[in-house]
Design a protein that fits this description.
The protein is mostly helical. It has five helices and no strands. The mean pLDDT is about 90.
């Protein structure tokens, strides 16, 4: 469990540095590269990437929302006909969660692809 949290924090910090100048979908590559370094089972890889990506997107969205006084999220919620601007934050976090998780799972499957198989 500690390795999952450790990797999630590394992914979040790396995303904070890199996503200032790159598009949002680069979180997939960040999770992929971090989890290529730290070999974990498939479920742990997915969870590490998902928690790291979701955490970054949550903190980033909340920070932006607080700084602009919820003005942007309220206008987007009205535009999409949503009852609350917090749904926008939830959707953004979900996108980060899924993207990071898929990047982590991709890293695990990529490592398994080149792992030697024992023939008995």
């Amino acid at each position: 469990m500690m390795r999952i949290i450790f990797n999630a924090i590394i992914i979040s910090v790396a995303a904070n540095l890199i996503l200032e100048v790159m598009p949002w979908w680069v979180i997939i590559f960040i999770a992929f590269l971090v989890l290529m370094l730290f070999h974990l089972p498939a479920k742990s890889s997915f969870l590490s990437g998902a928690i790291g990506g979701g955490l970054y997107f949550l903190v980033s969205t909340l920070y932006t929302d607080i700084v602009n006084g919820s003005l942007l999220s309220q206008k987007i919620a009205i535009l999409f006909g949503l009852p609350s601007p917090y749904i926008i934050i939830l959707i953004s976090t979900l996108i980060g969660f899924i993207s990071g998780g898929l990047g982590g799972l991709l890293a695990n499957k990529f490592l398994q692809l080149f792992k030697p198989k024992h023939i008995t």
